[in-house]
Amino acid sequence: MATSWFGRLRESFVKRTRQRIKEQHIPSLYPYTAGPGEDDYAWRGLSDNLSPKDFVPSAYLEIHNQAYEAYHTNPLAFSIIETTTSFVLGRGVKLDASHTRVQCVLDDFWQANQMDERVYAICNELALYGELFVRYFVNRFDGSVRVRLTDPSLIDQIECDPEDIETPLRFHQRPLDASPDADAGTWFRAGDQMQHFAINKVSNARRGSPDLAPLLPWLRRYKDWLTDRVRINKFKGAFLWDVTIRGADRKTIDAKRMEYATPPPPGSILIHNDNEHWQAVQPAINANDAKEDGRALRLLIAAGAGLPEHFLADGNNGNRATAAEMGMPTLLKFQRRQRVVKHILRSILDRVLAEARHAGRLDASLELAYEIVFPEIDLDDNQQLATAANTLVQALTSARTQGWLSDETAMRLLFKFAGEDVSVHEELARIRKEQGHARV
Questions:
Q1: pTM for the full predicted model
Q2: Tell me: the pLDDT tens digits for 103-116?
Q3: What is the rounded end-to-end Cα distance, in angstroms, of the chain?
Q4: Pairwise CA distance, residues 57 & 364, whole Å
Q5: From CA 187, how far away is CA 172, in angstroms rounded?
Q6: 3-state DSSP assignment of residue 155
Q7: Neighbours of 193 (CB within 10 A)
Q8: Per residue in 319-359, pLDDT tens?
């Protein structure tokens, strides 16, 4: 079968990119990918299993390495990741099941996997790597489940349904010893053995992208700028003694050099005749105030991270009202990330309940409904809403008493204000049902 024009074009692109990387001498990024002949293995799956919108493997690993390094060495990068996790998870999440047996299964899983702490690792690594690979270990006797996070840098191939890139079939984990064997490594079945969750990607890409990816060059530049400022400030305070001896010959100068080999300590007194002249000399650095330069870099990083400037340890610009207005897009971003983490946890917990039912711990007819309760992000906003809701309820009650509106209209206005999509007719039916049970 002849190769299609797209296949030939992609193969040509692979060869050119591989040659360019070799010419640039890009170093190995991880210990397990070091060594000669390594480049060929890193490129193994590129020509037949890579979306056009995914990074090439070398660039993908380099971004992971740089994001990981920035998180551990750059305080600003560390703050961006940790601030996101702190807002999204707060003091942690809680599970609330509709049935006690379901709650018991969920609590057993939560405690056995130390999920109170693991949820923070999930949120951190999701932001740091842009994706998660959750590995499942199932006890077939009692249906208990253990979950572990696999390093995304070890997953070099994602095989998807040929007709649907959003349906993964299996994942390939490269061997740690960088074996040149084409069959080396391990395949994991999607959904059964491993699940993949990704953020910051387009619909036709397989891999996610770290939150820090677009910020990495500017985080590095800001760090270099701060380092230069520290060096300049250090050198501005440095000085040396220039000693002039009038009418001295070479022998006298050498003797004075030996005598003054150790500079006088600060605060000491210098006594000499009028043939010697001492002068402290400082370097003429003439460094202007670069405060605005640093702020410009920090603003760019803050904009890329979706954080207001005062979140990055600069509260000198603006006031409380300005800070509150700037925080709204950030809170919406955190709420969006909450929904992503909630989806991840729900996928894991659904698997836990399915295995428990398969093992006979839960009856087939048992209701498996449960809720994952996240902490509220903006408490001040909730307090304002509660006050406004109380005022609205009083106004609606007064209007209903005067006969100005019906119960149905009052309920519709209340639900609309609360932002909840509730069927008024279904809610009235439930109220009548509960009132009937109460009379009995």
A1: 0.69
A2: 999 999 999 999 99
A3: 77
A4: 45
A5: 4
A6: strand
A7: 16
A8: 444 445 556 788 889 999 999 999 999 999 999 999 999 99
